Amino acid sequence: MSRHRLVQPQNFKSSEFRIRAPKKIQQESSNHKNVYPTHLSASSQQENKQENNEFEHDYYEFEQDYREFEQNHEFEQDQEFKQNYQEFEWNHEFEQEHQEFEQNYEFEQNYQEFERNYEFEQDYESDSDFIINNDPKTFDGKKNFFSNENNSEFGPFNSFTIMAFFLWITKHMISTAAYQDLIQILKHPLFKVNELCSNLQKLKNYRQKLPLMEIQSHMVPVNIHKTPSTSKETTRAYYFSLIEHLKRILQNPSINSKLYFGPGIYDEACEEFWHGNLWAESPLFGQSKIVTERGNFVCGDFIRYYTSNHNIKYGQIRSFIMVKGILKAQIQQLLSFDEIPLHFKSQDRLMNASKKLWMLEETILPIIDIINIIDHCVIWLEDNILPSYFNFSIAEIIYKFNNRWKIRSINLRHQHPIEHLQLQEPPSGIPILKFFLDFYYDDFGTFRSTYHSLGGVYLQIGNMPQKLRKQLQNHFIIGLVPFGANIRDFIKPFLEEIHQLEHGFIITINNKKYWLTGGLGIITADLPQGNDIAGILRHNAKHGCRSCYAAKEDLTNISFDTILNGRYHQITNIQFKEIQELNSNNIRTQRSTELGLRDLGPLDPYIHNRHLHIPQDPYHAVAGKVARFLECTCSILTSQGESSIIQYWKAFETPRKWARLPNPIKHRHSFMMSDVLRLLMILPFILQRCLHSGTIKSEYLTATKERLSLPHQNSVIKKLVKTWALVAKASKEVFSNIILRSEYYDNLTQALNNEHHALLEMFPASFENLPNLHINRHLVDHARNYGTCINMSVGIKEMVHRIFKGIVPHTNKHNLELILLQQINTFQTLRYLANGGLDDQGQQSTIFAKIMADPKLKVLLSGWYIKNHNLSIHSNEEESLDDVDNDKNSGYTSLITNMTLIRCSDICLRSKWCLPDIEAAGFISPNLHKNGLLGDIMQVYSSYYSMDQALLSTHIHFYNSASYTIQKDKDDYQKIEVHVGDVVEIALVENASGFASVDAIIKHRGNDKQDYVFIYITWFEDISRQDELLLCPIYQLQKNTNHSWYRIHPISTVKFTSGVSFVHNCDSRCTVDHHETSNFKYIQNNFLFTAI
Ligand SMILES: [Zn+2]
Ligand SMILES: [Zn+2]
Question: What is the DSSP letter of 926?
Answer without folding.
Answer: S
